Amino acid sequence: MKKIKLLGKITFPLFLLLILIIFSSCHKKQEASPVSAAPETRPKVEARLVRVTEVKPTKITEKLELPGTLQAENVANILSTAEGKISRLFKREGDRVRQDEVLALISSLVREDIINSARLILEEKKRAWNEAPDDETLKKEYLQAERDYEFAQQQYKEIPVTSPISGVVSQRWVDLGDMVPARARLFEIQSSDRLRVDVPVSELDLGRLSLNMPSSVRADACPGRIFNGRIQRIHPLVDNKTRNGLVEIVLDYICPSLKAGMFVRVTFILRTIDGALAVPAPAIIERPGFKAVFVVNENKAEERAVITGLETEGLVQILSGLGEGERVVVEGQEQLKTGMPVKVMPSAEQSGS
Questions:
Q1: How does the average pLDDT of the chain come out, rounded?
Q2: What is the pLDDT of residues 54-87, one digit of tens each?
Q3: Do both 79 and 164 map to the same domain?
Q4: Which domain holds residue 111?
Q5: Element housing 276 (H / E)
Q6: How many angstroms separate the CA atoms of 198 and 193, rounded?
Q7: Per-residue confidence (pLDDT) for residue 14, from 0 to 100
Q8: What 8-state DSSP symbol labels residue 133?
């Protein structure tokens, strides 16, 4: 009994000591750790800088721009009317000529034969008379031969080569003293007061052109000038190699610097659309199977699928997908995604003011 009582006396204090140690340890842990951890913070997404434009109704035109070549409206090929020699030459390349003006003279072979024959007879009669100056018969024969020679020169004159139109000598195929056969090409005269433009047009575009359709012409020879014209002829045949048809344009007015053979640029107005919704071409994004744009709505980007129409002069017509007044991103849309915050940069007009 004594041993049991002694053990009980010893165990109770130890029990209290153990409780104190445990309590102290828990209190230290509570002091070492905070009561509540600080909430986690996510990194803030920076807004992307973009430039936008407002969708507004605008007038757009569909144009067809093609190269062309200036040609003289009237070209005259002048042929020789008889076989003979070019005895006189009055005009060369680049010379201006008037209608019915003489370009050259042809001495025909018949004329040459008759005059040479008369000249030889005259020389023979003169030689005989010189040997017998008192012979009246030889004197009369010499005087008659002289009259025959003068008559031959007057009767068989040189044949004039004249121009049927006023213009410029564009080509010349003869020189002074050349012998030419009948109907040989001598000169080419191009009218200088009226030019036309020959334009090769693809078979795909020929059906979109019509007679009297207006056009504008620009030439490097007259910088800054625009010449108005209209289609006066559409050739019925298409070249089987190039698949191009020929369209002729007559110009209302030309400047003196324009010459046949010069290169020009021709613009046809195919159609005009008033009040079309259009955006700059850089705003269009090519997606697999469709086209899209980014619009800015409450300072956030929104990708929008669109259906486009006419594309001309840096603008793209929007048939559906956008409404008037919406702001479309035209710069900075790279790697944009729907819902991304954006910051709109001021336009050039706003930044300059």
A1: 84
A2: 999 999 999 999 999 999 888 999 999 888 899 9
A3: yes
A4: 75-190
A5: strand 263-280
A6: 17
A7: 55
A8: T
Query: For residue 172, what pLDDT is reported?
Result: 96
Taking alpha carbons only, the member of 255, 207, 246, 234 closest to residue 66 is 246
What CATH number is attached to the domain comprising 145? 2.40.50.100
Cβ contacts of 258 within 8 Å, gap of 6 or more: 70, 195, 219, 221, 222
CA 133 – CA 147 distance, rounded (Å): 19
Is the domain of 342 the same as that of 307?
yes
Taking only the tens place, the pLDDT of each residue in 302-319 is 999 999 999 988 899 999
Tokens coding 140: 């009369």
Q: Which strand (E) or helix (H) includes residue 64?
A: strand 56-72
Query: pLDDT-based confidence at 117, cuts 50/70/90?
Result: confident
Number of domains within the chain: 3
Report the sign of the C-alpha dihedral through residues 163, 169, 175, 181, in that order.
negative
Report helix, strand or coil for 284. coil
Same domain, 87 and 176: yes
Question: pLDDT tens digits for 323-340?
Answer: 999 999 999 888 889 999
Q: Give every CB contact of residue 115 below 8 A, 6+ residues apart in sequence.
A: 149, 152, 153, 156
What's 293's domain CATH number? 2.40.420.20
What is the rounded CA–CA span in Å between residue 35 and residue 286?
55
**Looking at the predicted structure, is the pLDDT value of residue 279 above 80?**
yes
Q: Judge if 197 and 336 occupy the same domain.
A: no
Nearest-angstrom CA–CA distance, 341 and 269: 43
Alpha carbon 317 to chain centroid, angstroms: 22
Which tokens is 168 given?
A: 């410029």
Please report, as a single letter, which amino acid is at residue 151.
F
Q: Which amino acid is at 241?
A: K
Between CA 111 and CA 153 the distance in angstroms is 8
Last residue of a domain, one of 129, 158, 190: 190
Same domain, 199 and 157: no
- In this model, does residue 164 exceed pLDDT 50? yes
